[in-house]
Design goal:
By secondary structure, this protein is an all-alpha fold. The chain is built from 3 helices and no strands. It has a single domain, classed as MYOD Basic-Helix-Loop-Helix Domain, subunit B, CATH 4.10.280. 75% of the residues lie in helices and 0% in strands. Helix 1 crosses helix 3. This is BHLH domain-containing protein. Pfam families: HLH.
Length: 92
């Protein structure tokens, strides 16, 4: 009995047009990501005026800024609650 050799199947072979489409999609996603990092950088005062900032720094500074805003909001709410309770005590 004679054995016939067959070529192994290649499942991951893609056409040239698929390869080009994939490349364009990756480029589009990168541009969107870069745009969003730029928008985020503009919102954070500590890095908004800097020309070059790494993506890691953008994220770290954004987290710090959010934390500062959160603390300021809590302080404002606590003052409002405190002054409201003092005013109620004075009415009695």
């Amino acid at each position: 009995m004679k054995m016939v050799q067959t070529k192994p199947l290649k499942f991951n072979k893609i056409s040239t047009s698929q390869r080009v489409a994939k490349k364009h999609l990756k480029l589009h996603v990168k541009r969107l990501r870069d745009l969003e990092y730029s928008r985020l950088r503009e919102m954070v005062p500590s890095i908004a005026s800097k020309e070059k900032v790494s993506k890691v720094t953008v994220i770290e500074e954004a987290v710090k800024y959010i934390d500062e805003l959160h603390k300021a909001l809590l302080e404002r709410l606590q003052r409002k609650v405190y002054t409201g309770s003092v005013e109620e005590c004075q009415r009695v």
